[in-house]
Write a structure and sequence with these properties.
Its EC number is 1.-.-.-. By secondary structure, the protein is of the alpha/beta class. The protein contains eight helices and nine strands. The model has no long low-confidence stretch (mean pLDDT about 95).
Length: about 260
């Protein structure tokens, strides 16, 4: 798919991190971008910078997603690109024991459900809405659209305390091929990126020595990934018409240890 000002894109989680880098990369090619995010202040500022539109959206809420797509399409027209970057995580064991008191704790089910709803169900809601919209378009060069989702290496190498996050990201991997097959007759491609340790706001908030230690865990290159490297792969997934139904690790060959 060509990248120019004749097409538009929706990026969820577009006000920071991987989503922001992808929005900037797409906008640099003239693509009209719409940012879905809950951070209104940052989202409006970035949309203004990129000449795009900000839509305050909770991806886990269908009505909020519908309103976001309505606003985005009113401003930019029907999108041909969706990049799902919105997500959350937590660090809670399935069950745990306090070493001092011997007391036993349980994973709060509401916290588990929240991660699943945002990461897995939110990705699916946005994918469903974008796919239905793309189906109204005429194919260009044999394509109606491209959808990219964000999983994580935790989908395959989940660490201690990552059960909810890993499950939500594994579900995104599991959805990729069936959705690609569902949409194949409509000429809409679907792929997923599994990032490793990246310079996201969460990791960048850690002390410098901790970030260096994490980067040193990566075999090659021995550093944290840059959001622009995620964006580069996302753009290649849009450009390459034969790339479909794939889940690609972007991780410097890291395989996460249990903790």
């Amino acid at each position: 798919m060509k990248l120019d000002n004749s097409i538009s894109a929706v990026i969820t989680g577009g006000a920071s991190g991987l989503g922001l880098a992808t929005a900037r990369a797409l906008a640099s090619h003239g693509v009209k971008v719409a940012l879905f995010d809950l951070n209104e202040e940052a989202g409006e500022a970035i949309a203004s910078e990129l000449g795009g539109v900000f839509c305050k959206v909770n991806v886990a809420d269908e009505a909020s997603v519908d309103a976001g797509f309505e606003k985005a399409r009113a401003a930019n027209g029907q999108e041909r690109i969706l990049v799902n970057c919105a997500g959350i995580g937590n660090a809670i064991k399935t069950a745990g024991r306090d070493r001092k008191t011997g007391g036993i704790s349980q994973f709060p089910i509401a916290e588990y459900r929240k991660v699943i709803e945002v990461n897995q169900i939110g990705t699916f809601i946005c994918t469903v809405k974008a796919a239905a919209g793309m189906m109204t378009l005429d194919p260009e060069d044999g394509e109606r659209g491209a959808i990219i989702s964000t999983a994580s290496v935790a989908a395959e190498d989940g660490q201690v305390g990552q059960v909810a996050y890993s499950a939500s990201k594994a579900a995104i991997v599991g959805m990729t091929l069936p959705i690609a097959r569902d949409l194949s007759a409509e000429h809409i491609r679907v792929n997923t990126i599994l990032p490793g340790l990246f310079e996201t706001p969460l990791l960048m908030s850690l002390p410098e020595n901790v970030r260096q230690s994490l980067g040193a865990m990566v075999p090659n290159p021995a550093r944290l990934g840059k959001p622009e490297e995620y964006a580069s792969l996302a753009l290649e997934m849009v450009r390459n018409p034969y790339l479909n139904g794939e889940d690609i690790r972007l991780d410097g060959a890291i395989r996460m240890a249990p903790r």
